[in-house]
Amino acid sequence: MKFQFQPKKINQGSLIVIPVFENQLEEFLKEKFPDLSFPNTLFSAKKDSHYLFPTEGNLVMLLGLGEDPGYKEIEVAFRRILAKNGDLVQGHVILDFPNSFNATQLEAALVGFGLGSYQADFFKKTRKNDFQKLKVGINHSDAGSKKILLRAEKILAAKIEAFRMVDLPPNVLTPEYLADWAKNLAKEQEIKAHVFDAKKAKKEGLEAFLAVARGSVKEPRFIILEYRHPDATKHVGLVGKGVTFDTGGLNIKTQGMHYMKSDMGGAAAVLAATQLIASLKVPVNLTTVVPAVENAVDQHAYLPSEVIGSHSGKSIEIVDTDAEGRLILADGLSYLNQEYHPDHLIDFATLTGSAVGTFGHECAALFSNDDKLSDHIQQAGMALGEKTWPLPIWKEYAKEMDSEIADIRNYHGKPIAGAITAATFLQAFTNDHPSWAHLDIAGVAFADSEFSKSKTGTAYGVGLLLNLIENHL
């Protein structure tokens, strides 16, 4: 797909898309199409509406956005153009924006339009519409629109990478795949990449990480990305859960295992966000850690009731091998904190069904020991439709993770407060970092949507992290 700012001519047979706000419909029609008249029953510019008509050899789509659409609503409305009306596109599209479209709305529209070209049919012999060669003209009167276009292209590229990582099958997207992805990113951007294999991880004391990996023939990879900017005043540390497939281990899952390729949604979020932040040259120092493993079953798999070590030095009693994500995150958090000392420490993980039971697929569960950071995360996400909501991590909950035989246990064994107790487990490995936040994204990283027949990746967290780092930290 190739975007062109203010094309000099409109090719015959183009699809011309014109977004319309509901409260500006009459004024818009008088100015844009003075000879056009149709009743409100055909087009009212309400949210989720559109109207098609031919004119001068082209096809015009009026896209209704309602009165005051948010970022996510605009993104979704424009994503529908190619995802649901791709057959109307014959080679050229013109996105004709009114002057009332501000920079944020324009960005959302361009990102959404590009996302409409994404399909998860990677292995089909005959794929759906291929929009790679599509030419897209952008009309907007703002002199800064070209800069917005370049920014939107980078956001789009990062989100599609996050989509792909979550949607690819686990025989393709392995720990080694993620490690190679990180190395390639380092070649393309001003980033340093470090990848530990099992031998190096053992030397670094990443015992909890290695315990989870024991049951899989696929070698684990502990991935570190370092992005540095000369004008940075803050150092942000990110950790993403990278379980490329989760059988549950010996506590094997009894349902929903088909979807466990998505258990690296946290890794996808932080890796794609790192790509985006580096490509935009955001003035921040960023260190991203992804412990990448497969939680499988064989004669070497770690056992319930084992006591394992960890990078922090704490011993961990294994109550449930399906509580594996917190184990690799524990080592990731401990290593990042000890070796890099970031100002803020944030982890993303598809961690618990409890978070889904509490919030469904509407928002992520947020835990933090820093009220200011928690507020900033909420504000950054809400502005883009990536919602979070805080839950407590009181000391009373932490007591649930006490073990008689070890320093801590990985699961409290009760059908209550699952997301909260998991968060208190993670906090025990932050070495009392004063500004830590954990986002349990189990319900929002991989979900049903109108754009696919089955669950697919959402790129949740990519926009949130960019907004957080650019505007709130």
From TrEMBL:
GO biological process: proteolysis
Keywords: Aminopeptidase, Hydrolase, Manganese, Protease
Chain ranges of the Cytosol aminopeptidase domain: 164-465
GO cellular component labels: cytoplasm
Record-linked Pfam families: Peptidase_M17
Domain of life: Bacteria
GO molecular function per UniProt: manganese ion binding; metalloaminopeptidase activity
Keyword Isomerase included in the entry's annotation: no
InterPro entries for this protein: Leucine_aapep/pepB (IPR011356), Macro_dom-like (IPR043472), Peptidase_M17_C (IPR000819)
Family that this chain belongs to: Belongs to the peptidase M17 family.
Annotated PANTHER family: CYTOSOL AMINOPEPTIDASE (PTHR11963:SF23), LEUCINE AMINOPEPTIDASE-RELATED (PTHR11963)
Protein name: Leucyl aminopeptidase family protein
Highest classification ranks of the organism: Bacteria, Pseudomonadati, Bacteroidota, Cytophagia, Cytophagales
